[in-house]
Amino acid sequence: MSAVARAIRPFATRTLSQKLPLSSGLRRVSPATSFPRGSIRSFSQSTFFQEKRYTESHEWIELSADGKTAKIGITEYAAHSLGDVVYVELPAADLEVSAGEPVGAVESVKSASDVLSPVSGKVIQGNAVLEDKAKFINESPEGEAWIAEIEVSDPAELDGLLDAAAYKDTIDEDH
């Protein structure tokens, strides 16, 4: 390194580490100070509530942030196995279901299958989009093509369900 570079380096480092006026368009700020106070996400909420759970019979459930309601649907694997879905039987609102009981059904050109509720609860609503467009299940089975939204009676029932990795392992065993 040249003598000039060694002489300028401490000055340049000190200058660049200082905050420049906003009008210059350049500003070097440490990442810790770039977040306004209070905007940093708290990790006190369990990530469990943001993760889907699965059944061995190929249904998924996703608990909402309030921990009281959840959406239920069929997995991508199930949708692919069924083929082109032609009809979806949606549950009636206020239907009381227990874990393992049918909450709807899906019919395809290949076969028909009940959709079993992974947990106990009361149906809030069925996904009205599927009444007119059943094949939407093939397009977004684990997204917007959920079958039912329910009020969960006992969130602890979700503890007995599979996480994504365990569900994937069950699918791999089937092949």
From TrEMBL:
<keyword id="KW-0809">Transit peptide</keyword>
<feature type="modified residue" description="N6-lipoyllysine">
    <location>
        <position position="110"/>
    </location>
</feature>
<dbReference type="GO" id="GO:0009249">
    <property type="term" value="P:protein lipoylation"/>
</dbReference>
<keyword id="KW-0496">Mitochondrion</keyword>
<keyword id="KW-0450">Lipoyl</keyword>
<dbReference type="GO" id="GO:0005739">
    <property type="term" value="C:mitochondrion"/>
</dbReference>
<comment type="subunit">
    <text>The glycine cleavage system is composed of four proteins: P, T, L and H.</text>
</comment>
<comment type="function">
    <text>The H protein shuttles the methylamine group of glycine from the P protein to the T protein.</text>
</comment>
<dbReference type="GO" id="GO:0019464">
    <property type="term" value="P:glycine decarboxylation via glycine cleavage system"/>
</dbReference>
<protein>
    <recommendedName>
        <fullName>Glycine cleavage system H protein</fullName>
    </recommendedName>
</protein>
<dbReference type="GO" id="GO:0005960">
    <property type="term" value="C:glycine cleavage complex"/>
</dbReference>
<comment type="similarity">
    <text>Belongs to the GcvH family.</text>
</comment>
<dbReference type="InterPro" id="IPR011053">
    <property type="entry name" value="Single_hybrid_motif"/>
</dbReference>
<dbReference type="InterPro" id="IPR003016">
    <property type="entry name" value="2-oxoA_DH_lipoyl-BS"/>
</dbReference>
<dbReference type="InterPro" id="IPR033753">
    <property type="entry name" value="GCV_H/Fam206"/>
</dbReference>
<dbReference type="InterPro" id="IPR017453">
    <property type="entry name" value="GCV_H_sub"/>
</dbReference>
<dbReference type="Pfam" id="PF01597">
    <property type="entry name" value="GCV_H"/>
</dbReference>
<dbReference type="InterPro" id="IPR002930">
    <property type="entry name" value="GCV_H"/>
</dbReference>
<dbReference type="InterPro" id="IPR000089">
    <property type="entry name" value="Biotin_lipoyl"/>
</dbReference>
<feature type="domain" description="Lipoyl-binding">
    <location>
        <begin position="69"/>
        <end position="151"/>
    </location>
</feature>
